[in-house]
Amino acid sequence: MNIWSLLVWLHVLAGITWIGLLYYFNFVQVPAAAEAAADSDGPGPAAISKYVAPRALWWFRWGALATWLTGAAALESSGVGIVNAFTLNGAVAVKTIGIGAWLGTIMLFNVWVLIWPNQKKLLGIVSATDAEKAKAKSIAFMASRTNTMLSIPMVLCMVSFGHPLPF
Known about the structure:
This protein has five helices and no strands. The chain is mostly helical. The longest helix is centred in the N-terminal third of the chain and has 36 residues, at about 5-40. It has one domain. Helix 1 (about 5-40) runs antiparallel to helix 5 (about 130-160), helix 2 packs antiparallel against helix 4 and helix 4 runs antiparallel to helix 5 (about 130-160).
């Protein structure tokens, strides 16, 4: 196995972790926490926010970083080069992977700059007033939903790099 193959394998593994958790948060945890909060006889949302969410967010944010780093390393070792990809300099395949890399970079930014700092307020990891928590909830929600929407074209760009169009 050459270094490029190993990097791509690690990139895919990290990406599955990251995007899998992104979908888990948006389609499983958020609705479950809302149901738990409304259930007067249940354990309440603390069961999720105290035990599940911090651990899932740890894997989520580090999975995002590992995905980006292994993707950048794979681009560099493939001969495409990270600069060519990000400047969309080259053939259609290079431009396509570059668009995917840009989408992944935006998503990584959202994870570390918008989602994680605001989730820390919501989970009580850092102190926040009720007004700050309300704002944090909105920001984290919108950034997470944005990442969910960006994940589809991002994955398509990444996959199409290995499956170029026949024309």
